[in-house]
Design goal:
The chain is 46% helix and 11% strand. With 538 residues, it is of the alpha/beta class. The relative contact order is 0.09.
Length: 538
């Protein structure tokens, strides 16, 4: 079995192995995409193939769309060259369901793949042609939060951004600069409207994309590369809009077990690792649950993607949905499992969900402490969302996610994932009702000692503040329980509002965090003892 347009013509062979094939005619879709492009997507990774490309497939299958997606990668060109094109832009979506069943679906909704390469004249000219097209309605993005950065952590403008500001739209070579130059081209070819839709998993994602494009517009207008009208074009939502969105779907790296299953079906795979270290396969494994809430601001119109399960609403509701997910219903639970999973030696999130002590911890974080102050966006029910996380998503044995991955950059996550809940309790005068969240804070500090619950050295995940906080904790040895010594080292960290979102000593939580830390640090097995005791007390 070959994953190509010719290969899937043998429909019986594929269907006999349980694969769902596209119901639409692929060749006319490809022609329609080329002649009348509607949807361009930047960032050709797993989340795109598992979510957006599948949504388009549903629309094509139902006859609600004629053209597919133009998939573009501007970071790692080899994804397109070595994975997309050898498979005629097809891929296999393997949906791993919590009930143990597996759905295998051939995704054929990508009508064209392009490389955002300034030095490749044919590739870049094709993108310019697409951006000059009357039919283009929107461009979506999954380029990661870092992809929108204009400055480094210290607020200094990145050298690559400065270089593109000075180079102008004809020579800009960075990712954002090349996207901005395509918008210049669309402006110069009739000031045609378009929506630029970030679908990255970060708060205020549309604002981040707008800020980047507006910065390029200001820079290029001020340097005389383009006339003043381009700035007005970018800053007018009726010309170029930057809708906000909230996305939630877990699409881990392609798993060897899934690859083995597909290979046993007889499918030939050419899994590759690019020169940039990107691991890409012709299949994506993903969970069943998915949410994509989008601000409905499309000046050139859009397909009726609500028919494929996407939710369109106003900006305020998108922001509420994001706060619900990140601040209460998913991300705090994830971080709690990550910290304690690492300390207890777990390597899979789903295995942690068999641990009664850990399940009790996240249930308390979510239902008991988070839910009473959760933002309710109305379009999604917070309790039902947590229910899906606790009982369906996290226990899914087919989702090979790891606490070590989720523990990455924890210092950058705590203020958003827990800080707003703590602030709400402070405002209500009930901060001392919080016990699970302080235990998570104490667990993170205990984790930073880089010693697991057996008393053995433990490798920590990457974090930009890891060394800084470890330096402040350097005087704490494993087994130290003296509260005065611990308080002297820990409280300065807890007062850092850039980490926690507020001063935890002023909030009234420092003493409980220090006391919890002392118990967690009492020696080998102390972490388990504390978690078990907490589960019995609550």
């Amino acid at each position: 079995m070959k994953l190509t347009r010719e290969g899937i013509n043998n429909t019986k062979e594929w269907e006999d192995k349980g694969y769902i094939l596209p119901k639409f005619a692929i060749e006319p879709m490809i022609k329609a995409t080329h002649d009348h492009p509607v949807w361009v997507h930047f960032g050709a990774g797993n989340i795109f193939r598992a979510f957006m490309a599948n949504a388009a497939q549903k629309m094509l299958d139902a006859g609600e769309m004629e053209s597919g997606i133009v998939a573009v990668d501007g970071f790692d060109y080899e994804i397109i060259q070595k994975q997309y094109r050898p498979h005629d832009n097809l891929s296999v979506l393997v949906t791993l369901k919590a009930d143990g069943s597996v759905e295998k679906k051939v995704i054929a909704s990508i009508g064209e793949s392009c490389i955002l390469d300034r030095d490749n004249e044919a590739e870049f000219n094709r993108l310019k042609e697409i951006f000059a097209s009357d039919s283009l309605q929107f461009c979506s993005f999954t380029i990661t939060e870092k992809g929108y950065a204009l400055q480094d952590r210290n607020g200094n403008e990145l050298p690559a951004i400065t270089a593109d500001f000075n180079a102008g739209p004809q020579k800009a070579s960075g990712y954002l600069g090349k996207v901005a130059s395509l918008l210049v081209w669309r402006y110069q070819n009739g000031k045609k409207p378009v929506a630029m839709v970030s679908m990255d998993n970060c708060s205020r994602n549309g604002e981040k994309l707008y800020t980047a494009m507006d910065a390029f517009a200001h820079a290029w207008v001020s340097r005389g590369f383009v006339d003043d009208g381009f700035l007005q074009y970018i800053e007018s939502p009726s010309s170029v809009s930057f809708p906000w969105s909230m996305i939630d779907k877990i699409t881990p790296r392609p798993h060897p077990d899934v690859q083995k299953m597909i290979e046993e079906d007889g499918l030939e795979l050419n899994t590759v690792v690019t020169s940039k270290g990107t691991y890409c396969a012709p299949f994506v494994n993903a969970e069943e649950c998915e949410y994509l809430v989008i601000e409905d601001q499309f000046p050139s119109g859009r397909p009726a993607l609500e028919e494929a399960g996407l939710i369109f609403t106003d900006r305020a509701t998108v922001e509420k949905a994001e706060r619900m997910k990140v601040g209460t219903c998913l991300n705090p639970l994830h971080t709690s499992l990550a910290i304690y999973g690492c300390l207890l030696g777990y390597t899979r999130i789903c295995d942690e969900m068999k641990d009664a002590d850990l399940v009790h911890l996240i249930q308390t974080v979510g239902y008991v402490e988070g839910l009473p102050v959760a933002t309710d966006p109305k379009i999604l029910n917070p309790k039902e969302f947590i229910d899906a996380v606790v009982y369906k998503r996290l226990p899914n044995p087919f989702m090979p996610d790891t606490p070590q991955r989720i523990a990455t950059d924890t210092s950058q996550k705590l203020s958003v994932r827990f800080g707003e809940t703590v602030k709400a309790y402070v405002k209500l005068g009930k901060v001392h009702d919080l016990h699970a969240i302080p235990l998570v804070y104490a667990g993170w500090l205990r984790y930073l000692l880089a010693i697991d619950d057996e008393g053995k050295p433990m490798e920590l995940s990457d974090d930009p503040l890891k060394e800084k906080v470890q330096k402040e904790l350097a005087g704490i040895s494993f087994g130290e329980t003296d509260l005065s010594k611990l308080r002297a080292a820990i409280v300065p960290v807890l007062k850092d509002s850039s980490i926690f979102g507020l001063d935890l000593e002023e909030a009234g939580l420092a003493d409980e965090v220090v006391a919890d830390f002392a118990k967690l640090n009492a020696g080998a097995g102390a972490v388990r003892t504390v978690l078990h005791t907490f589960a019995k007390q609550e």
